[in-house]
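ARCHIVE CARD
Drawer: 12
Card no.: 0347
Subject: one protein chain, sequence and derived structure
Cross-reference: see card 0346
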Amino acid sequence: MNIYDALNEYKQYLLIEKKVSDNTLKNYMRDLEHFINYIQKQNQVVLINQIDKDMIRKYLQQFTSLAASSLSRKMVSLRSFYKFLMKEEIVEKNLMETFDLPKNTKRLPQVLNVEEIKTLLDSIEMDNFKNARMRAMLELLYATGIRVSELCNLKLSQLNLKMKYLNVIGKGDKERLLPLNDYVCKILSCYIYDFRYPKLDFKDNDYLFFNNHLNKISSEYFYKILKKACINANIKKKVSPHTIRHTFATHLYENGADLRSIQELLGHSDISTTTIYTHVSNNKIIDDYNKYQLRAKIKKGDSIHEI
């Protein structure tokens, strides 16, 4: 089978059977197209069965200087592709079986503290459509911890301000009902009635949040306006939409929320994914200990008699 035909079949499989998100699909396709372009350029390969293990090894060697996470992502894309090829009997051997993923030092997620998230949210005045939309999107992210893809795909029909809940459609089309607090309901109500409806000017639009062309907001665009909001609020940390999701979960855990509840709210299928927030909070405990415990303040070289 031609390489590009195989890739196209895999793309259809991801879309129809796996029902992956637009963002996941884009990442897989970007990695695999890069791989195929390299293979064709270096080896003049046309058929998928012409690719051998040595070609893959040489391709992956380009990325050994990158962070382990970057190399891992490319390898995961190739592994998934070859599993599909084996499943459909397009190839006779899974060439990715002998390649081990690099050891990845697990980095704890970046989070904002209570003051930082408050500063960021309060810095956005709801004085025009764009600012009101940004404030509403950020407040909703912090109030629910939803993924940026879930946020951008939200329809107005998924929101019930009277009953104070949000119906989210997550990975694999799984639905979860999320509670909304009074404050975020107030912000959303202001956005919808004072800015969203006037902007539409009686036009139909299913999306809760949309751009000037009345189309769905992309994750990339939201990241850009979030970055700008952080600069305006003088937030020094590197903040992404996922940072707000991490912040939501971490603040819940630090205030006594049960890990199982956080798992349900985030839409994690495995509790082990959620346990990362216990480590984030433990880091804060250590920082607070070193900051406030009297004996911890003694510097190296200080005499015990100086205490």
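Annotation on reverse: The radius of gyration is 24 Å. Residues 22-43 form the longest helix (22 residues).
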